[in-house]
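A common beginner's mistake is to predict each chain separately and then try to dock the pieces by hand. The better habit, illustrated here, is to supply every component at once so that their relative placement is modeled jointly.
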Amino acid sequence: MTTKKQLLDYAVDDAVDLYVLLKSADVRTAKNGKPYIAMVFEDRSGEISGKYWDASPSDIENFVAGQVVHLQGRREKYQTHPQIKILHLQVAPAETGLTAGDFIERAPMTREAMEDYVNQTIFEIEQPTWQRLVRKLLTQYRDQFFTYPAAKSNHHAFQGGLAFHTISILKLAHHVVTQYPDLNSSLLYAGAILHDLGKTIELSGPKATTYTLAGNLVGHIVLLDGELVRACDPLKLDPQAEDVLLLRHMVLSHHGLLEYGSPVRPALREAEVLHQLDELDASIMMLDTVVDHTAPGEFSERVFALDGRRFYRPNQPQSQPKPEN
Amino acid sequence: MTTKKQLLDYAVDDAVDLYVLLKSADVRTAKNGKPYIAMVFEDRSGEISGKYWDASPSDIENFVAGQVVHLQGRREKYQTHPQIKILHLQVAPAETGLTAGDFIERAPMTREAMEDYVNQTIFEIEQPTWQRLVRKLLTQYRDQFFTYPAAKSNHHAFQGGLAFHTISILKLAHHVVTQYPDLNSSLLYAGAILHDLGKTIELSGPKATTYTLAGNLVGHIVLLDGELVRACDPLKLDPQAEDVLLLRHMVLSHHGLLEYGSPVRPALREAEVLHQLDELDASIMMLDTVVDHTAPGEFSERVFALDGRRFYRPNQPQSQPKPEN
Amino acid sequence: MTTKKQLLDYAVDDAVDLYVLLKSADVRTAKNGKPYIAMVFEDRSGEISGKYWDASPSDIENFVAGQVVHLQGRREKYQTHPQIKILHLQVAPAETGLTAGDFIERAPMTREAMEDYVNQTIFEIEQPTWQRLVRKLLTQYRDQFFTYPAAKSNHHAFQGGLAFHTISILKLAHHVVTQYPDLNSSLLYAGAILHDLGKTIELSGPKATTYTLAGNLVGHIVLLDGELVRACDPLKLDPQAEDVLLLRHMVLSHHGLLEYGSPVRPALREAEVLHQLDELDASIMMLDTVVDHTAPGEFSERVFALDGRRFYRPNQPQSQPKPEN
Amino acid sequence: MTTKKQLLDYAVDDAVDLYVLLKSADVRTAKNGKPYIAMVFEDRSGEISGKYWDASPSDIENFVAGQVVHLQGRREKYQTHPQIKILHLQVAPAETGLTAGDFIERAPMTREAMEDYVNQTIFEIEQPTWQRLVRKLLTQYRDQFFTYPAAKSNHHAFQGGLAFHTISILKLAHHVVTQYPDLNSSLLYAGAILHDLGKTIELSGPKATTYTLAGNLVGHIVLLDGELVRACDPLKLDPQAEDVLLLRHMVLSHHGLLEYGSPVRPALREAEVLHQLDELDASIMMLDTVVDHTAPGEFSERVFALDGRRFYRPNQPQSQPKPEN
Amino acid sequence: MTTKKQLLDYAVDDAVDLYVLLKSADVRTAKNGKPYIAMVFEDRSGEISGKYWDASPSDIENFVAGQVVHLQGRREKYQTHPQIKILHLQVAPAETGLTAGDFIERAPMTREAMEDYVNQTIFEIEQPTWQRLVRKLLTQYRDQFFTYPAAKSNHHAFQGGLAFHTISILKLAHHVVTQYPDLNSSLLYAGAILHDLGKTIELSGPKATTYTLAGNLVGHIVLLDGELVRACDPLKLDPQAEDVLLLRHMVLSHHGLLEYGSPVRPALREAEVLHQLDELDASIMMLDTVVDHTAPGEFSERVFALDGRRFYRPNQPQSQPKPEN
Amino acid sequence: MTTKKQLLDYAVDDAVDLYVLLKSADVRTAKNGKPYIAMVFEDRSGEISGKYWDASPSDIENFVAGQVVHLQGRREKYQTHPQIKILHLQVAPAETGLTAGDFIERAPMTREAMEDYVNQTIFEIEQPTWQRLVRKLLTQYRDQFFTYPAAKSNHHAFQGGLAFHTISILKLAHHVVTQYPDLNSSLLYAGAILHDLGKTIELSGPKATTYTLAGNLVGHIVLLDGELVRACDPLKLDPQAEDVLLLRHMVLSHHGLLEYGSPVRPALREAEVLHQLDELDASIMMLDTVVDHTAPGEFSERVFALDGRRFYRPNQPQSQPKPEN
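With all components supplied together, the output reads:
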């Protein structure tokens, strides 16, 4: 009955039949006065919404966020937004053994591998102040760092996304310091590890992620700066010493422009590089997702975080037999 | 010989003859190969530059920054910038008893009066967390707060200017909370006192003020946020508790726009009001100076900090006998 | 049956039962081909919309704008906009004695008190030309000035709002001229009284306010300038004399920026101050309303007129027992 | 001795020898302490500056603005700005019969021809209100209209330039109403004649033109609107009647954008057309001058009023024998 | 039964009864699960949409794009957008003899007249390189040039609109070169003819016009530049010779600003003029349509391509008996 | 006598004594009427200007651009710009054997190594159309490609800079396609090789580089697109086939924003990546130079091409003994 196809693999008008996670389920009242449930379904391919009309009291009780369900319906388009027309829905029987965790998108590295990579990089930070500060803050926020998403939406918005995004930047950084040896690798690595760590305070958690009050009133960039300053006292460091200031600046300036929330623009070579690597990784991650969900020969939907641009997926295959020269 | 006129009271082509402070004195080489000294003179009316040509070695030794001098010359205009043509210059004789302090612009309140006003306002902060944080930080930076300027240039760029600007805002705030009683006066006063306190770290000191490295790489807004977070540990406060976050937000958002260096825009009624009162006081202070130095019936030079606008000083007297109706 | 609760006091899903004013009632055709009435209800707490389905001819005849009605229903949310689901609706019986005036939001001062305040301030305008021009124009537009709203929407959009907003600015101005005595109080008061008087020509009236053709093609700023020029002839004044130009400039520049509709930017100290006080009062009025309608611990809806920002209402009570020092 | 070449016909390093008008002459002090005169020379080809070093008292007395002089020197370039190196200068002998008027750039039509053209167009304004308002204001400002420049600098900055620029627009307008007959020709002609008439109040006069106080504090657009309103009373017109509002709107919106000083953007088809014809004529006039003063195969200096662009003058001749096909 | 009224002549609530073209017909699923057809109807007055509910299989088969139909219904407004409520719909009987061509909006000149005008202008291009390039490209794209619209939407979005828009610019150009004889008429005419010719590659065709892949990835401006370069080889021209570069620049710069897709800004007098004439004709064409569809005394809907402005249609008649003077 | 120090190694006030290349030498007239030569000196560390006063006719003859000279003088600062005060200058004796080539900054790879790298990468382009187009254009412009600078100023403004910049991007690209395997490496490499090849037409040559007319009127981005289209005919390719369009788009969009001269924004994943790698390499190259020329503990001059930012060179050494953990 179920297939190996995933939620976002269906084209418009395809019949849909598979187990998925009910990510959210809000009860509302329809124009005809009857209750319906606005649902969002999710599996590792992504998410899509649908409306469950004429909900009975027991439906409302059963179909709650976090439940695994067997979904049968049709993929449709409602005013340019994809959605599922639900034809039949039931709670997944216990014997399937399926749990929410089977459907949630995750970072494509294990937590263990991510921890190893980050630990290894910390060893490569030769400057002692920066190493101590990175160690202290990472110890303090370790669990959140390896489980939180990198954002509420847009890029790396999945469990472990924060660490995975950080590691992608570190990989780029390792190449860049080889190609441009004048860069201070210790500063670049330390800045990269800390740059988004404030998101562990800005965001509410790995699932159903929202902004905390601290996130709304202060923002992750300044929150982490606060934690850096606070970490100085027990480590007997002066928060206004040059080496501490350099690291603070790496974190503070990484959005590049004041308009994007950095209170200062990059004034160090390494700060400019960190900013650009951050953008590069975020763009590629977004575009990989966007292009994957676009049919060959067509343009994607508008990508809000890339100025509303639409991206083309060529018919052209990606690799081919080498030409004879 | 000397007159009671001050440095900026002279019109173009007037003969100048008075004691002034030599604010800066840089030795350079002229086109003809001989050394000259680029000088800036200062008294409480403001400052103006001049060139001392054909400087002898003893001139170079005598005419150094900080020296009080007897200046005779002529006020001129060099490519729209005012300057003094120096005709005769000598070090002020000891018997005049004049010191640098006699010529430096100061806040128009005594330090004692300023301390009283601020202390009184702290009593009016009813919320205990905010009161304790304000007390702690003010104790820590008291001396700098009452002697530093509010800026390197533009508004309140004089000794004690930082405290005087803060007090002006507090006075406006006292009126505003009376007129609009829904505002939280404790939050507004606490935010006002701390809003520019970070300048005591951003700027190098009360005289010959420059930006510190911390000022350049972090900026006064985030520097003070760091100090607020750091003050929480000894006071056993949680830097992410709501009341602490509200105060941090007051400081962080007071420039109003991200483009002006605030990492977050005002999201509290009181934060919006603080931002607007800050602008109002700064604008009036700048304009009072600008209009004072403009002749009636003329437009001022362009005011850089007000988008390069020029301001008109009317011929119209400021007050008159009341009309009979 | 009815309660003392007002229209905007209900939370989502609350049952609503109260007398309100039918502010507007437009008949439309539903998807099923039957007529329905799109209604807006109003009382002094604000306004909210609802749809009256399956309207009979007699419903259409009875439920017209301006009618007081007894509304029973439920508060709902339709795509982020609040609305009322109407369950029962009937015209208020005559014996309730309720009239439209009982439900319309008004300025929180009586007209008499507002007239007194403005008259008193006119006495304080010492410069005779400005006093005569203010008197003449205020006499001409007195009734409109004390009954019109200050805007179609946003701030002070209620009966008497125009005069009330003007008086709020005058109160701020009285404080400001005390704190900064170099300001010309006559010019500031005269400019403040006239600054928005052109809205009596720009807007259609105190109720169901729309823009007039003159408002759309000329705008209130230039309309008032025209009236100032026109008033000069009978008063034997030269519209290009300095004192008249100063007052014209106060009105013309009060939006601060060309992009906001001022044909010139402020070039007088008093014009800059008027612009800033106008913004300050408008912001506080808007924020008071916005924060009032937000639950503690939550962020408001986006405030369009403040760049779409959302504002936080703290859990923190506004005042508390004074800390022991 | 003198030649028929004009001031701007000389290339860099050419010897210059001709009669010119001394447009301005400011006495200043050189670095060596001696007075010199900063001069601007003018003839009908344009203007250029030069410095008269070591000026004697009698030089200062003789060489005053408005004097016709015999100039001998060399054309040079000083930091990208052209200038004349003065080798010999003397007041033109009375017997040459030369007067200032012989050297001032003028509109390329006689005043009489310009008056005829404008009068003829007024006859074509069929709508009576517009015709009466145009007649009244033109009668009032006739002399200024036919002698003032269109601007202090940039385009049509010569005597009679205001009327000439207006007539150029009227000529374009006559063609446009033929090609697009839905346009209301009366409104377009009336708006075109009045659009810049406020410059007769904004500018100080036909020579040595500066901005008046009215120009600085109100601006020509709103000044003319004031005059339109003021003209209504004697003509028994209502300044808020539709036909008057349409004409006011034509004038008020003709700069097209709020940022360019129009308090409203064009909201009439004819207002949009007037704005575009105004830009078209101004651009072509500027570019004709700019390209004339550029050598074939080179780029001009940056044209400030066209966003600092530089324009290319082709080697390509402008017309050639027709190709045989 | 049918009337002479056209599709856009009906006011809201009018009964509609006429033959029209079914421009598009998309089958979708309604909330109740039944198929409906989203239709767009068109005749020479414009187009309007409507929904055909409860579509049977034979309805879906019959009502396809391109079909002429007899439409009976009512004009309505759905959330500010006009639409037709369909009451009865049937395929037009063969005996009416109506075809799609009878309903499609066309250029108001015959193709023959347009070809004549363009050919005549080509004769007036005296410079041989430009004439040869224009001839070659026009020969190559002749059919598309005289049948394509000028755009997918906005101005001249009808069959033949591309040539008609080009000819309108040429007419303006003929007048302008007479009034400003320094302009190079050959360059202006050649540039005008080619400026939008790239749209024959950018757009898919004269009907149901969409963007081609070349249009999306390259754009009409650079596509035509590519064709110009490519045409040089057979004509033995150097694409980097001055005369070819001048013509390429005319095409490349005609959008005026980089932000509008021109890779270079106009750097020739004629390029600036072409850009302005292009804007003038496009604006007038758009405004004629907009004002036509607005009732006297009302403002139009927002015109997206003119910065979202709304335009007023005066009550004022367009022409009247001449006033007696 | 001469030292191994290079031109930019001297601090302000240092005595300078070394052989350098006279990069440019313009004869001008000083205020005292005597000729002087405005010179620019260059060696591999960079360039700096100086003025040679009171030039004799033989000086003017000897000191011409391209000459190697022995320079003795002093490094000074003239209004924030560094310059050399020339004390003694003579043409380098023939016996030194020094030629211009010894002083011109070059790419830090040999031409041979650069050719090898590019050839190797071309082999890795698996898609035949792209490989053939790259081969053809590189063959055509090979010499220019390996000798031209990448720009007139800013980054890679040295001989061979164009190829070196391209290779730096290719190295980054090789790493990126490994880390993000979904990217089409053939397209990225082909686009990278061609992206700036148009500069061989836009710029005048490897030395004394200026913009050509084609560069000014068309620009390197569109010039290369023209060459791509032109190359299609002999290769029997359709310039509007998908694979050709993809490559054209890579080149056309690589400036990222319309405002920066790209006629289209990136609409392919690989185009976005190319744009970002281009910026990354250019920024690092500029910053390496800027930071090199700044003293430790100081901020650089403003970097125009990076929005006028100033960059800090830390006192902090770049690497240190690893901390013991």
